[in-house]
From TrEMBL:
Keywords: Carbohydrate metabolism, Hydrolase. Residues 11-227 form the Glucosamine/galactosamine-6-phosphate isomerase domain. This is Glucosamine-6-phosphate deaminase. Gene3D superfamilies: 3.40.50.1360. It holds the Pfam family Glucosamine_iso. It comes from the Bacteria.
Amino acid sequence: MAELVVVADEHAAGALVADAIVSLIRRKPDAVLGLATGSTPLATYRALATRIGDDAIDVRGVRGFALDEYVGLPAGHPESYRAVITREVVEPLGLTPELVRVPNGDPVTVEHAGADYEAAITAAGGVDLQILGIGRTGHIGFNEPGSSLASLTRVKTLTAPTRADNARFFESPEDVPMHCITQGIGTILRARHLVLLAFGEAKAQAIAAAVEGPVTASQPGSAVQLHPHTTVIVDEAAASKLENLAYYRHAWDNKPAWQGI
Ligand code: PGA
């Protein structure tokens, strides 16, 4: 079973995840982080930046792989995930830019960009800790419902709800690209530790399906049930549709102190 932790808010989640990442980097200074975009992980990145500064953690060797990228945005577009990862992660954390990869969404080369990205992750020795958000549709990365549970990095077509959700970042809804390149569910499952974050009522259904529903490509988040080390961190609102919530709280309250997340 995935470990499920209910926290007060995204800042409390950020503190927990920052702890886990700092101890990973102390053990492995060239740790490989899997980086999500969207609003969900922002508080975690801020908490991590603060911890890195306060504890003077040397992160120059830390490597990173983003989950996904839009296809076809002009280079340097402020909402490209390359730009978002630079702005929200690489710069505030002080990572080495050359060590942080984002899938290449240039339509000219996108045909082999998935295979290139898989090769780069493999060459890095795999992802140590993968941060995940979840969409209303249940997507992780941009793996929309129906994505193969064994899929690797490739081009996908975004659903209408996902394009509508992401329209807030663009001038008009039509500006949201139709296609993306995303790590597959199979790629995500190869990471050594998955940390899935969700906050707010709008995510409650997707979280219940991911944690307690059947494992099905129709709910890509449910793939986390196949992983031996998944930590799901949610606030009360996102936890509100879970049937076994009392047990998750009981397990967390009685967790051995040495375990960490
Ligand atoms: P959000 O997106 O963090 O902006 O809610 C999550 C996702 O779509 O994976």
